[in-house]
């Protein structure tokens, strides 16, 4: 992430600096809700993290009613939009080589990124496991209702408590001894469900990835707003939506890359054409004992 990111997040020059209404389920707190006040919208304020999400995110979109938006259908548009620094060229099955968006790998010089010894490899495995275990909770921690954006339901509070306890368990493992300090928050004295719930209500915040409020879907879906074949709003003439709000469900990562893909694909939809599907193998992690 660029060091100057916080200048945009902390300034009203390029940021609308919204806040939510007081949230009943967070003890009346209002949550900071930055939105781009500049050409390019919130994509101009993003942290420059290019994360496509998982291929299954887009297969799920199609299952949820967004016909034509499976991974094999959207991969060509991810590739079209980017020039990836490590692309193998026109025949690269996954990455683009001549698109307008320059994408490169992030730095990996931290000891946790260097599997140069058995100990470091063990750390990497533990860290990978922890990220996979917590992935399911990213999109469930904030549930939208008609009168409250942040509404941790009982099951979600349980999941967040589990995430805290799992994080403690992981970072208490021996491979992290040389990196671990004292727990700063919620603090080692916070152990009971009640104590953790109090911390969650005090500390939970947005990751600044609002989406899915105008989801693509079938005309028979009462929650669908946008026709996935035209990007038009059901029941309204000459109104189209092309942004993160049309996602049927949130992608498992930052929203900038999928939003650019949506724009590329929508552009072709408006032109009455579509790139051919691509079906390279999807990597899956090996079974763990």
Automatic annotation (TrEMBL):
One GO MF term, please? oxidoreductase activity, acting on CH-OH group of donors
Name all Glucose-methanol-choline oxidoreductase N-terminal domain ranges.
Answer: 36-59
* Listed InterPro entries: FAD/NAD-bd_sf, GMC_OxRdtase, GMC_OxRdtase_N, GMC_OxRtase_C
Needed cofactors, names only, are:
FAD
Q: Which Pfam families does the UniProt record give? A: GMC_oxred_C, GMC_oxred_N
Keywords of the record, alphabetical order, are: FAD, Flavoprotein
Spell out the family assignment given in the record's similarity comment.
Belongs to the GMC oxidoreductase family.
* PANTHER family xrefs: CHOLINE DEHYDROGENASE, MITOCHONDRIAL, GLUCOSE-METHANOL-CHOLINE GMC OXIDOREDUCTASE
What's the protein name?
A: Glucose-methanol-choline oxidoreductase N-terminal domain-containing protein
- What species was this sequence derived from? Diploscapter pachys
